[in-house]
Amino acid sequence: MQITQIICQILRVPAVEAKTASSQDALLVRVRTDNGLEGLGEADASPEVVKAIIDAPFSHNIAAGLRHVLVGENPLETERLWQKMYRSTMYFGRTSVTIAAMAALDMAMWDLKGKFFDQPIHRLLGGQQHQRLRAYASILFGADGAATADIGRRWTDAGYTAVKFGWEPMGENETTDHDLVRGARQGVGDNTLLIDAGCVWDARTALRRAQMFAEYGIEWLEEPLREADVDGYVWLRDRSPVPIAAGEGECGREAFRPLIDRHALDVYQVDLSRNGFTDASYIRGRVEEMGGRLCNHFYTSPITAAASLHWLSTCRDAFLFEDCVEESPIRNQLTLETVQASDGWVEIPDGPGLGVTLNEEIVSRLLVAQSE
Asked: Which value, in Å, is the radius of gyration of the alpha carbons in the chain?
């Protein structure tokens, strides 16, 4: 089997508000082979930037576009091809958005591998530890505590027993931060509450917020610091009364290495659309070896939701699945299958490969750019 064609499609929902949410557009990768199979992948980054990395022509041996690297190769050889892509992009990759582009292609090749062997990806990764996972509804904060409480009630009424709130307007000041978390707790009642700060504080401020939020029994405090502040995370985790989670923005094993080596986090959040199955599997082994906990990060389409479930189901101590509940056609309609929790639990896809099928009508309606 050989790769004959790599198609990049940019999808975008028209006329959306500006906010920190990545279900408003998508970079969809379709890898086709000489035996008629197609694998699907997705990258969570700026779609045009990812497309440029895949479409770029050959410059020299360590600065090559990814289509040039992969066409003609056997997609079953995922580990070798990850290494080939990594070396071929050394001058503009390593821990950057280039790894997200590689992740989309890697995801598509694993989808092809599953379809070729007629097996779900979780089986090819070594086998399920979980047949279903408890899901948390992942959503942005409301404008204030009262609006956040209303959002919390909406999703617990929908059957979720855990809800995470994140990003703006957290970080404006202490009064606002306290109001948001108090409202969140009121909204979710006795259910599990998770708080995503969105990289807004220095370490000492984050410690004060962690001490304040501990009163509300939060399950974790996510990304309180800048993503690159490894020293700050080490310092904070040693002192915080609540667990510290981060990792969603990291691309590949090299990016995760300092966080893992220094035991900087309690919960390591791995996004399959920034890491792919090949590196996510490596990261899983490292985190489990050192006794950390793993969770997925996901805020895009059902393609990444399915990929996340395949990977997370193979994680020994997986305890929660991040379930983006944004109301967007990219999140809710891009595949014919629904990949969403029901009554707070989500089933693991069991069809060949990712186990999802594109809704071509939605692709056509949202398509703004394509290359092949």
From this structure: 20
